[in-house]
Amino acid sequence: MNLRQLEVFQAVLQTGNMSAAARLLCITPSAISKAVAHTELQLGYRLFNRSPAGLSPTPEAQVLATESTGIYRQLDALKRTARNLATSDSGDVRLGAIPSITHEFLPRLLQHHAEQHPQVGVEVRTIHQDQMTQALLTRSVDFCLGFYKHPHPQIASDLLVSGRLYLAVATSVWARAPRAASPGARLAQVPVIRLVGEDPMRQAIDEIAHRLGSPAGPGIQVQTSRLALELVRRGMGWTVVDFLTAKGLDPAQMVAQELHELAPMSLYSYHARAFPPGLQATRMLGMLPALLHEALQPNPKARQALTAR
């Protein structure tokens, strides 16, 4: 099968109808019919069973579909890349990011990108760290943003920036907490808001809770740092957040204590080694260093608020 035959085969497979496949490829139904007939003649077996209800794949076609889907996706990605290169001022970028990045930093990046490249479409997917492998290898996204180096051998990790983890607690809870030798020890009797699943913060929270001897009991466990932070803001306990989230906290409502006892956390961009980011994605990635540097500048108001306490 050549690439044109593969394209026709996949179109008929997806639509189950010659006319629908023709509309999908912007050619005539007769051209679709001839291409299918010619392919079947070359292969020596039928690909589709015809019935009043439409076309259904034969067992042989189902095997071919499994083997050819990856090739078809690569062909589609090649077309999209070629289109983006031909029209360098337009195109699209698809990216995935963990929830904390999506909520805290990504709006800054998207605003800057829209100002620089208004003709480029952007699709953002909020996904967890364990979902990134499939998203990248199936080309659902061009690149991802997340914490820690990606363990999969087919995923490349590019270091963007590193920073400390922070213990976050409501100002009202912090003000009532008894003075102690260390800032963290002040919260030894305050409940902890833990995380479940594969969130990068989970291990850090558990380690700090163990060091502080936090109260035993079922407590509250949530799936995202965003929800944990909202519960903390309501005075229900403390949690651990990354450096980007910490910089964005309102000092009037939240106190962020840097955790020197924990190793720094690093922010990475990920992409599939077999599918390097295209032109538009590369342009967006190029904006990250300056924007991250800007986002991590000290917050004078936060420093003043913490000193006052």
In short:
With 309 residues, the protein is an alpha/beta fold. It has helices at 3-15, 18-25, 29-43, 59-86, 99-104, 106-116, 132-137, 171-176, 201-212, 225-233, 243-247, 279-295, 300-308, and strands at residues 48-51, 54-57, 91-97, 120-126, 143-147, 155-163, 166-170, 193-195, 220-222, 238-241, 254-258, 265-272.
Which properties best describe this structure?
alpha/beta; about 300 residues; disordered C terminus; five-stranded mixed β-sheet; elongated; 12 strands; about 45% helix; three-stranded antiparallel β-sheet; single chain
Mind explaining what this structure looks like?
A 5-stranded mixed beta sheet has the order 4-3-5-12-6. Strands 10-7-11 form a 3-stranded antiparallel beta sheet. The protein has a two-stranded antiparallel ribbon with strand order 1-2. The longest helix is centred in the first third of the chain and has 28 residues, at 59-86. The N and C termini lie far apart (73 Å). It has helices at residues 3-15, 18-25, 29-43, 59-86, 99-104, 106-116, 132-137, 171-176, 201-212, 225-233, 243-247, 279-295, 300-308; strands spanning 48-51, 54-57, 91-97, 120-126, 143-147, 155-163, 166-170, 193-195, 220-222, 238-241, 254-258, 265-272. The chain has 309 residues and is α/β, with parallel strands linked by helices. Strand 1 and strand 2 form a beta hairpin. The chain is built from 13 helices and 12 strands.
